[in-house]
Amino acid sequence: MERDSMNQTEQKSYALIDGRKISTDIKKEISEQVTLRKQAGKKVPHLAIILVGDDGASQTYVDHKVKACKEVGFHYSMLRFADTISEDKLMKHIDQVNRDEDVDGFIVQLPLPAHISVERITEKIRPDKDVDGFTNRNFGSIVSKQPLLLPATPFGVMELLKRYEIPTEGKNCVVVGASRLVGAPLSMMLVEEGKATVTICHKFTKDLAHFTRHADILIAAVGKPGLITAEMVKEGAVVIDVGTTRVEGPQYKNGYSLKGDVDFKEVAPKTSFITPVPGGVGPMTIASLLLNTLRATELRNL
User: Fold this and answer.
1) Whether residues 160 and 253 fall in one domain
2) What tens digit of pLDDT does each residue of 164-191 get?
3) pLDDT at position 207, please?
4) pLDDT score recorded for residue 4
5) In a domain, 236, yes or no
6) Is residue 211 part of a domain?
7) 161 and 256 share a domain?
């Protein structure tokens, strides 16, 4: 009897941050806004997507985005090009979409073929249509009082924290990963919007565990499965796992499995809140993309 009681005490409960549920809630809210816009005779948001090549993962991501547009009632258009397209020719197509006043939001699905510069292509997109939030102008606007269109994945993380009422003000936040797409902008958003104290760790950080063990909110965005282990996390921490890596192997039903940067099974019992992979941050990226597209339409007063 004493042993059972001790085991129950040792098993710490935690709350799962359900990105699928929150993204569904957001899509419902957006759908209601689209209905109101239609009733008021206002423009229905229009998202344009450029896909280069036939990468299977990219096609899947695009399919999810198209499905989401249909769910909320957005108009959408797809532009597909072979992976042999030249950079200059792709830039001309981007110019055409930039000039199309019916298009409110615009994304170029990554990755791109090696002969095409991601930076040049990204900067070619009009900032007020850049619903991925990748352009330098949108990146820099994070530190302004009126950010334009926020980077989609960091926006999704902040929305999860907000909707689960997880306080960030004055909290010690550690972001593992300093990428331009996630880690860097998310760190800025945690400081500017969240009023948190933020430490950014990266591949050159010495003794990573020293920093992660002091985190009230730990965010991993590296793309290295199982990087964050239980001994690297303090009791009661909030853990957000942005990393999603496709790990292949015959032991998996479909031949592969999606793994996060966090060793979920070992880490979860130590946390107060934690995101799963899949089903955590992933769905929020598309939800944020839709929110940005709606905002882009509103900013144009259409």
Assistant:
1) yes
2) 999 999 999 999 999 999 999 999 999 9
3) 96
4) 42
5) yes
6) yes
7) yes
pLDDT given for residue 1 in this prediction: 38
**Beta carbons of 74 and 37 less than 8 angstroms apart:** no
Out of 109, 241, 261, 270, the active site residue is 109
- Rounded distance between C-alpha atoms, residue 295 and residue 47, angstroms: 12
Let me know if 109 is a catalytic residue. Answer: yes
The answer to whether the beta carbons of residues 85 and 115 sit under 8 Å apart is: no
Task: From the candidates 27, 65, 124, 129, give the one annotated as an active-site residue.
Answer: 65
Q: Domain with 197 in it: what CATH number?
A: 3.40.50.720
Residue 11 pLDDT class (50, 70, 90 cuts): low
The CATH code of the domain that includes 86 is: 3.40.50.10860
* 65 domain-assigned: yes
For residue 15, being part of any structural domain is answered with no
Residues 270, 170: one domain? yes
Average pLDDT over residues 6-16: 62
What lies within 8 Å, CB to CB, of 68 at 6+ separation is 27, 286, 287, 289, 290
Distance separating alpha carbons of residues 132 and 148, to the nearest angstrom: 11
Global pTM reads 0.92
pLDDT for position 6: 36
From 104, 128, 130, 132, the catalytic residue: 132
Asked about 33 being catalytic, the answer comes back as no
Total number of domains in the chain: 2
Is 59 one of the catalytic residues? Answer: no
Q: What percent of the chain has pLDDT over 70?
A: 96
**pLDDT, position 263:** 97
Q: Give the domain range for residue 170.
A: 151-282
- Read off the pLDDT band of 10 (50, 70, 90): very low
